[in-house]
Amino acid sequence: MTPAFAVISELRRRGYQRFFWVGHKFNQAGSKVTSPEFQTVKKMNIPFFDLKAGKLNRSWQDNRFGSIINLIKIPWGFVQSLWILVRVRPHIIVSFGGYLALPIVIVGKLLGRRVVTHEQTVTTGLTNKILPYFADKVMLSWPSSLVHYPQNKAVITGNPLRPEIFTPDSHQFQFKNNLPVVYVTGGNQGSHKVNQAIFDQLHEILEICNVIHQTGNSSVTKDADQANQLKLSLPDHLRDRYIPKTFIFENEIGEVFAKADLVIARSGANTTYEILATGKMAIFIPIPWVTHNEQYLNAKVASDVGMALILEEARLNGINLKNALDLAMRHLRQNKGFNDKPLAEARAAAKGVVRFDADKSIVDIIESLLS
User: Fold this and answer.
1) How far apart, in whole angstroms, are the C-alpha atoms of residue 212 and residue 295?
2) Which of 226, 245, 257, 325 has the fewest CB atoms found within 10 Å of its own CB?
């Protein structure tokens, strides 16, 4: 989601004004809670189309009923995509992968539209293996991804970075002490497992640092409610050290990154890239079930330059997370990366793997196809 916003910002800077967005309007199927994606796009005054497409599951064993529902939704996704594209008549389709992109890209190509797709991850999933056959150009974040794509279409651009992460533009996160600040995020919708590990050791964690905690707003787990209740139950000297938020908006993320000394997060492609770009130390907890262990490979990029610890989900609990946090704090106090090299050196190595002009490179390609 965030790379798309960066590309839209650059397109607007160059004078383009007419955009349409296809995505998920709600957090989960059957939920009435609108997604952070929808909320952000609405603030940008871009028309939003809620696409209810299905996806191909590699395994039927875990949820056969869900897999059948997904299969039924696949043709409906193509019908919806046709309706959207006939109504909108875009000059070009810019895809950032995922199963929702598949029917839009295929139908768009059949209608004769130009298509570009961007792959954020180190490896590639099933949908993103299909998309290049229908794309005019495939833009990649990492050089190692080249082996997965047609050489005549693939271009290494890097992963677009939101300009907001470099520019503090709010004053929402104020602390009354000089303790280190830890930003906890599980992605746009939060992570129940990460949240529970934080809750388990919240009192002990707040004895050594301040915490900005993006919990997500799931109507199922109700982690946001639990976070707010825990905050109220904290002793007076700890309560002001804990700021739970369901979602960090674009105008807030710059302040969060400016104040954070450490990030505890899942290692999605965009999160990893932003943490590398901002030179933040991290404790990454990769989701183990994603395709080709994608999140672990993302986290390893940061680990290899000394900027991240990897805590595997199988070992995730409150005590192990607190132990990892203690280790991270020792490295911060010693001004060292996790590879024991000077922190400035580790940060320089992290920024060296990031392409800071990815948004401009992608828009250059889009303009070349529009001319």
Assistant:
1) 23
2) 226
